[in-house]
Design brief:
Blueprint: E1 20-26, H1 42-49, E2 58-64, H2 70-75, H3 77-80, E3 88-92, H4 103-121, E4 124-128, E5 144-147, E6 150-153, H5 157-170, E7 173-175, H6 177-184, H7 205-219, H8 228-232
Parallel strand pairs: 1-2, 1-3, 3-4, 4-7
Antiparallel strand pairs: 5-6
Helix pairs in contact: 1-7, 4-5
């Protein structure tokens, strides 16, 4: 097996010699819940991936709350983000905002969250777009949801674009899950997305592995680690 080599990336070089506090702030796709069927979510995989990135130690505080939209997040920003004095804040909203506000207002709220965090302690900020909703029959993107006996639009694309625009304007790091997943859905193997989802909105453990795989490069963290039992079953452990 090749040696795993990681190093603190340049945009986090100022954190190399300190104990690093990371706050993951968002909705149910950040919160630890039943959708992973007892496995890790992406923050759990991030715990596993960062040990050689921040050699003086780190902690990850999960401040995700299921059902939250960003307007609610702004109300709890002091309690769930600022009081921890984070070195890195990862902001992950959009999935619920699509049914509660407009992309324009959402972008303004996101800008306000960034402003308040930076005024507090000038920490590094990572924005994440949501994964697309997945039709559990086909594996393609789903853009409507049942509500009061009818199917209503729920298009995440304008909200993902709002996050990209705010990231450009505010000069933050960005992990664009929405773009990566929808690009994959152009493949003839789009049905594989059924294996990644607990339901149309929430990734399961495998889906969270993919989310981690997409955020890991921001930290220069190892992307493809696996468990001991997987290693035992692989050719890498066979004796010549």
């Amino acid at each position: 097996m090749s040696q795993i080599v990681t190093a603190t990336p340049q945009h986090f070089a100022h954190l190399r010699d300190k104990f690093v506090t990371i706050v993951a702030f968002g909705d149910s796709i950040t919160a630890i819940n039943h959708c992973t069927h007892g496995g890790h979510n992406w923050t759990g995989y991030l715990w596993m991936g960062l040990y050689e990135v921040f050699p003086n130690g780190f902690t990850i505080i999960n401040s995700g709350i299921g059902g939250n939209h960003l307007a609610q997040g702004l109300v709890r920003l002091e309690r769930d983000v600022l009081r921890f004095d984070p070195d890195i804040a990862i902001i992950s909203y959009g999935m619920n905002d699509v049914s509660s506000t407009t992309p324009e207002i959402f972008g303004q709220q996101l800008t306000e969250a960034i402003r308040r965090i930076r005024e507090h302690n000038a920490c590094s900020i990572i924005l994440r777009t949501p994964n697309p909703m997945v039709d559990m029959w086909s594996g393609k993107e789903q853009k409507t949801v049942p509500q009061d006996g009818a199917m209503v639009p729920r298009d995440l694309a304008p909200f993902a674009e709002a996050i990209r625009e705010v990231s450009r304007e505010q000069d933050t790091l960005l992990v664009d899950h929405y773009a990566l997943w929808t690009e994959s859905m152009k493949s003839p193997c789009y049905g594989d997305f059924l294996a990644l989802m607990h339901d149309p909105v929430h990734p399961n453990e495998l889906g969270h592995r993919r989310l981690y795989h997409e955020i890991a490069p921001v930290f220069n963290a190892y992307r493809n680690f696996f468990y001991e039992w997987e290693r035992v079953l692989s050719d890498q452990c066979k004796v010549a």
